[in-house]
Amino acid sequence: MTWHYASQPWAEIADFVSSNDVHPPLHYWFTKLFLVFGDGAFALRIGPVLLELLALPLIYWSAFNLAPEGRKRAVGLVAIVLAAASANMVSTGLLARSYAGLYLCFTICFAALSWIVAHREMAVKSVFTSAGGPAALRYGALALGLAGMAWFHNLGLLYGAAVGVIAFLIWIFVLGRRLAAFVNFAAAAGLAFLLYLPQLGTFLRQLGSVSSDYWIQQPSLFGLIRSFLQIFGQNPALQKTSVVGMALAGLVCLIGFCTALALIRQRNWAVLLPTAGLLVAVYGLFVLVTFGVKPIMLNRTMYPMLAPWFVLLALGVCAISWPALRWGLATGLTAILLFAALHVTDSTRWRSEVLQQIAQDAGSAPTLITVPNAAAVMMDYHTRRLDLAINTIPLPAPYPDHSEGARFTTGWPGVPALNDRALQTLETALADNPEDVWVFLRAYWIYDPDALFKPYLDQRYCYQPVDGLPSKLNMVFKLAPRATLAGGPCDDMGNDVHFPYERPDYGRYSLAEPTP
Q1: Higher-confidence residue: 124 or 475?
Q2: Alpha-carbon separation of residue 270 from 146, 173, 229, 232 (angstroms)
Q3: Domain regions of the chain by residue span
Q4: Which residues lie across from 286 on neighbouring strands?
Q5: CA angle, corner 48, sides to 45 and 54, nearest 5?
Q6: How far apart are CA 133 and CA 306, in angstroms?
Q7: How wide is the angle at C-alpha 251 spanned by C-alphas 250 and 253, nearest 5°?
């Protein structure tokens, strides 16, 4: 989808994205710069990787500002090594999405705050006077980071709110409530608002069209603990209970927790607030919104807040008096992060494997029906890259097909699934190619896979899952006419563990009778 949006003409990207997606356009403009290298993985991922690399010197500089005298370079070195070894940031680069840009801009805000608390005698001088020149640059960077976060991702506004909370606390506990410092923060906030203003109207429209049946589930208590270990324990592969993985992630978290506790006991607000305080503010807002408004707690949306975490870990490690233990722990911590990074996998690889299997099994050019329609963009992209002859048919119509009037029994605006128009398209596809037909079904919780198979296909077709699938989210089936399998094995909806599909109560629909 990143390629799909970034490949539009420069002047049309913003309108195209705002009509068909819920993200700001900055990431797609930025990605378009690299399409001169083609449309493969390198061209789409090199941009996020460069953004993450740009964050590394800022992390070192932040650590240098916050570390005590005599240990500044050591803390900076450990922080930058941990940031570079982070499995979470490796996985973020592989996504080829806007989270790397959000990470860089949040790191800019963190770096600005670290300078402000470390150079408070300059930070309290008004940026509107000649004496406030050094401060003006840092407050300007804070404004740029705030605006950049919101331009890269709508959740950047949540990150910005957390930065605002911590900036206010810094003004109270570190800057002595000096009026000039308050004016400086206000000026940074005002400049950030002006920079974001062209995108504000689009964001408000998108906010008003979010469905009440949002597909992200609220995490259980165990889900929250696992998410915490994945994010702060630097182990994104910790999807299932793993004693070793949880122990290693828990050790990483313990170091950061002990460091924060020591800073609290020392009442070292100048270091505590921009590190642990900023992390608590971001994570706390994510939890509040998830349980009070809508679930938003996907790990990838919270990885961008990790720059202060690397510095907090480095401060804890370098506070150890014994050099052998200090550098031994730093080496061990780096090894843990690298071990997790080596287990980060390319999550897109299965798509090419599935398409190759479909092409090999088909007697002629096969038909691949995609639900929802946006999935056709993904499948067409990989089909073209592999030079395969597969006819992709999106339901109910080619993407984009987004309008407020397109509300379906089993879908919502932006993810249309099944209606009369879709059924007509489906019947035409089956009539044109009754033998070699596959269905790709991305099973959001907002609609029910049963609604496609049981009422309309189960009487005429058996389904044969592609090897390794179906999964609970991405399902691929070959439709086999029952007439050709008389007396043979035939899977149907009644004997598959994936059906009926389990959805939370807030995502349930009552199915309407099909129109004759």
Answers
A1: 124
A2: 21, 8, 26, 22
A3: 2-341, 349-507
A4: none
A5: 140
A6: 30
A7: 65
3-state per-residue secondary structure call for 19-51: HHCCCCCHHHHHHHCCHHHCCCHHHHHHHHHHH
Better pLDDT: 506 or 10? 10
Residue owning tokens 């403009």:
29
pLDDT band, very low/low/confident/very high, at 419 (cuts 50, 70, 90): low
Residue position matching structure tokens 């990787």? 49
- pLDDT score at 325: 92
Predicted confidence (pLDDT) at residue 506 exceeds the cutoff of 60: no
* pLDDT tens figures, 464-486: 777 655 455 677 888 877 776 65
Residue 416 has pLDDT above 60, yes or no: no
Is the pLDDT confidence value at 396 over 80? no
303: Cβ–Cβ under 8 A, 6 or more apart, which residues?
88, 89, 91, 92, 99, 103, 231, 236
Q: Quick one: which H or E segment has residue 183?
A: helix 179-208
The rounded distance, in Å, linking the Cα atoms of 285 and 382 is 37
Comparing C-alpha atoms, which of 4, 96, 29 is closest to residue 348? 96
Beta strands in 399-450 (DSSP E): 437-442
Q: Which residue has the tokens 């249309």?
A: 416
